[in-house]
UniProtKB/TrEMBL annotation:
CDD domains (alphabetical): FHA (cd00060)
SUPFAM superfamilies: SMAD/FHA domain
Superkingdom of the source species: Bacteria
Protein name: Signal peptide protein
Amino acid sequence: MKRCESGHYFDSNKYSSCPVCGVDDIDIGSTIAKGGLSRSKGNHIDLDLDLDLDLNVGPTRQINKSGQGHDEGATVGVIRKEQGIDPVVGWLVCIEGSERGRDYRIRSEKNFIGRGDNMQICIKGDDSISRENHSIISYNPKTNSFKILPGTGKGLVYLNDDEVDTPRELKSFDEIGLGKTKLKFFPCCGENFKW
């Protein structure tokens, strides 16, 4: 350690002079607010730049904002496209685990289950559930039926204490196990109702 004339200690292997005192005879200039200078305050900058740039940039292209291109944006489910809404088709209710008593809405088509915020069914507080795609619950509006599928996550999925390794039909009051969490399935759509 080295001590400067002002009494500050610094590592001479890292710094050639005291980092607290700074460097003598250096003119850094004044700080300019984000967004640049305001001409209304009388600030003036005289830049004498002689730049000869050839950036080899192509022509400007129009961005298709009307949604008529090949990738129109977010995928829209069948029911939402037909009816303008994405209604609840069923629920999962946590009966065991950190989220006990909480309900999760099931929407039409695929519902990805995990503990990540980007999952349609996000189960917090159970780190034995994969962050993404631990399991999938699907509702098929054409057949008015529900299925549970294993996801791409590391953890296993159980339906009524049997491992789910292929798509399986879900019925009222079925019990789903993910990590340390158990969920009970309650359909809204079925033989008596359909959107």
